[in-house]
Amino acid sequence: MKASAAILAAVALGQLTWDEAADRVAIERVYRPDPAHRQRYDQLYRAFRRLYRATRKVYAGLNGRR
Predict the structure, then answer these.
(1) Residues 31, 41 contacting (CB under 8 angstroms)
(2) Its domain of life (predicted)?
(3) Is CB count within 10 Å lower at the N or C end of the chain?
(4) 6 and 23 together in one domain
(5) In this structure, are 46 and 18 located in the same domain?
(6) Percentage of the chain lying above the pLDDT 70 cut
(7) How wide is the angle at C-alpha 59 spanned by C-alphas 55 and 64, nearest 5°?
(8) Which among 55, 58, 36 has a CA at the least distance from the CA of 47?
(9) What pTM was computed for the model?
């Protein structure tokens, strides 16, 4: 976790690019969506979109971007 925060900080400070950061992260496992669950994924994504639209102004305000 600490290494991840350090890499993110280095990108934020301009010391690394995202491509360079990716080269420093080991990928243990790759997850691929199961096509058999497509309908459920679509339902969850629609719910996420509704939630995002309903709350984005709240988060923008909390982040000082109103």
Answers:
(1) no
(2) Bacteria
(3) N
(4) yes
(5) no
(6) 97
(7) 145
(8) 55
(9) 0.53
